[in-house]
Write a structure and sequence with these properties.
With 123 residues, the protein is mostly helical. It is 85% helix and 0% strand.
């Protein structure tokens, strides 16, 4: 890996870490587009790499949140089971869908969720 690639990857990770800690997102919202645009990854590799990178982020941010009394571990445990079961099967879709279709789905999801939060968001 070249020094430039290392620097870009560290920068993407740093930005993703800030967004993950503040907003609960980062892998998909920051890493995937950055991997595609700056590192020239295909959509499928960007998604897979982002998921791998977020394991550490989730562990560190969750431990910090727990230390400060934030979060609901019962809900997190139940949601994790649901997410793991569906992710197991949906990861096969990643292989089967075209990169173009995945990019469209990703973009549409970002737009719809962004609009919902802007228009209906409550703290």
């Amino acid at each position: 890996m070249s020094p430039a690639t290392i620097a870009i990857s560290l920068s993407i990770g740093a930005l993703s870490g800030v967004v993950a800690a503040l907003c609960g997102v980062g892998g998909g919202v920051i890493m995937v587009p950055c991997f595609v645009f700056f590192l020239k990854f295909g959509q499928k590799d960007a998604v897979a790499t982002s998921l791998m990178a977020m394991i550490g982020t989730a562990i560190v941010a969750s431990s910090q949140n727990l230390k400060h009394g934030l979060g609901n571990w019962q809900i997190a445990a139940v949601a994790t089971v649901g997410a793991m079961v569906t992710a197991y099967f949906a990861s096969d879709w990643l292989r089967k869908l075209s990169s173009e279709r995945l990019t469209q789905i990703f973009g549409l999801l970002l737009v719809l969720m962004g609009l919902r939060m802007l228009l209906l968001g409550k703290s």
